[in-house]
Automatic annotation (TrEMBL):
Gene3D superfamilies: 3.30.1490.270, 3.40.50.11290. This is Circularly permuted ATP-grasp type 2 domain-containing protein. SUPFAM superfamilies: Glutathione synthetase ATP-binding domain-like. Coiled coil: none annotated. It comes from Crenothrix polyspora. It comes from the Bacteria. Residues 71-446 form the Circularly permuted ATP-grasp type domain.
Length: 470
């Protein structure tokens, strides 16, 4: 693995221009100041209940989100290039989703096989022929980016089902402004606090036609879900109701919410419940999280689900390989953001190569998430690699592999002081009548030295992401 790109310092140890004022402020800071403010940040997060659940653990399964108080900084021009690439990618992904549930032109053109789409377990035939407002399927997308050099970013994966983390982006900023008001006086930082209003506007635009004042709700699986804090946070910030499946019912192909004043029709559901559990009459009959008849109301055009049912086929890691072709096919444009080189283990040549190079590669489950089920070859023991190899051989099509990227690093407060740690970035892209992105996103940081796994479920933390105005 190559030496990673340090976002604050050049190879000669000089501070990069974008971090100049921050570095100067840091040098003048009295000893112990950062540590004291870090303690304050922890107390704030604990008071607010900013936690996440860790599935599969019995002790202390509810954890505080680790927050690093050293910001990650982007320049305006750099961010503008990223924003153009993100918008392009999400436009193409929405076009792909509309196509595969309608005319399937990309399959007819031979750019992607019918088996890859129709044989995917996340493809929902129930969505075939349904026309959605603005032809938008992924109203909220979280696109994971990694940086390997200056102006050299790659898309690691697309999250189009129920992407999470945006509440941490907003709360990180609030915490930083509270603890470091003098820093914001020295920097003109683009705001992110208006994200809930942008989300609300996007959901309003997703309402069924001719609904002037749509009723919007956030639908959660409940308080035991790992992202429940975020569900409650977004509902509160948008000023809409947080509901569970049992709070809704369907009558004559319309969705209603039970209230103390009687039933109220619901027009848009920002749902954080997976497809399989959304309607027990269509998907899993044992689900107690969904609403019986919801898909019937959806097909009738009386309610909009954000994100749409069936978006998972587009964020499957084996579909990810085809996004550059989607951009060219649907938009007639050259991709502005590149994919990471990826091997499909369903292909015999790719499989043979990967099996011969497992100690060098990262292997992922095609439908995995949260950092679970991964093999990071360079940091794994030979026994772990051999065990994973047997998993691959039992079902090669369930895996893809990628090179171990030299992820960029950012200054991070650790026990020994400030040290570089690897980071990625998840910007949140909102699609309605227009595509909107708040300047920044959720920077995730691997807090262990040398670690490349940034997921909070795997011990990673988060940072405030600054985009400086020109």
């Amino acid at each position: 693995m190559k030496n990673n790109y340090n976002e604050m310092y050049t190879d000669n140890g000089e501070v990069r221009e974008i971090y100049g004022r921050y570095s100067h402020w840091l040098k003048e800071l009295p000893d112990g100041t950062l540590e004291r403010r870090n303690t304050e940040a922890e107390l704030l997060f604990r008071r607010l209940g900013i936690t996440f659940a860790v599935y599969g653990e019995t002790d202390d399964a509810e954890r505080l989100i680790p927050f690093d108080i050293v910001p990650r900084i982007f320049g305006a021009a750099e961010w503008q290039r990223l924003e153009l690439g993100l918008k392009q990618r999400v436009r193409a992904l929405n076009a792909f989703l509309h196509d595969i549930y309608h005319d399937q032109e990309i399959i007819k053109a031979g750019l992607i096989t019918a088996h890859q789409v129709l044989g995917n377990s996340l493809y929902r035939p129930e969505m075939q022929g349904i026309d959605l407002p603005n032809q938008v399927y992924a109203h909220i997308a979280g696109i994971d980016l990694v940086r390997v050099a200056e102006n050299d970013f790659y898309v690691l994966e697309d999250n189009l089902r129920t992407p999470s983390g945006v509440s941490y982006m907003v709360e990180n900023r609030k915490t930083m402004m509270r603890l470091f008001h003098e820093l914001f006086a020295k920097h003109t930082v683009e705001p992110v606090e208006h994200y809930p209003q942008m989300l609300l506007n996007t959901l309003r635009e997703a309402a069924p036609p001719n609904v002037e004042y749509p009723v919007i709700v956030v639908m959660t699986p409940g308080s035991y879900n790992s992202a429940y804090f975020e569900h409650a946070f977004l509902a509160r910030q948008m000023g809409v109701e947080l509901v569970e499946g049992q709070d809704l019912f369907v009558h004559q192909q319309k969705v209603y919410m039970d209230t103390t004043d009687g039933p109220i029709q619901v027009h848009v559901i920002y749902r954080r419940v997976d497809d399989d559990f959304i309607d027990p009459l269509v998907f899993r009959p044992d689900s107690t999280l969904g609403v019986p008849g919801l898909m019937d109301a959806y097909r009738s055009g009386n309610v909009t689900l954000a994100n749409a049912v069936g978006t998972g086929v587009a964020d499957d890691k084996s579909t990810y390989l085809f996004v550059p072709e989607m951009i060219q096919f649907y938009l007639g444009e050259t991709p502005l953001l590149s994919n990471v080189q990826t091997w499909r283990l369903s292909e015999p040549d790719d499989l043979n190569y990967v099996l011969a190079h497992l100690p060098e590669l990262v292997v992922k489950e095609v439908q995995g998430s949260g950092g679970y089920g991964m093999l990071i070859g360079p940091t794994s023991t030979m026994a772990e690699i051999e065990t994973y190899k047997q998993r691959i051989l039992a079902g090669p099509a369930k895996f893809i592999a990628q090179p171990t990227l030299a992820l960029s690093s950012c200054p991070t407060l650790v026990e020994a002081g400030i040290a570089p740690r690897h980071v990625d970035l998840r910007p949140f892209v909102l699609s309605g009548k227009d595509i909107r992105i708040v300047p920044g996103g959720l920077t995730r940081v691997a807090l262990s030295e040398g670690s490349l796994v940034v997921n909070s479920s795997q011990g990673g933390g988060t940072k405030d992401t600054w985009v400086l105005e020109d």
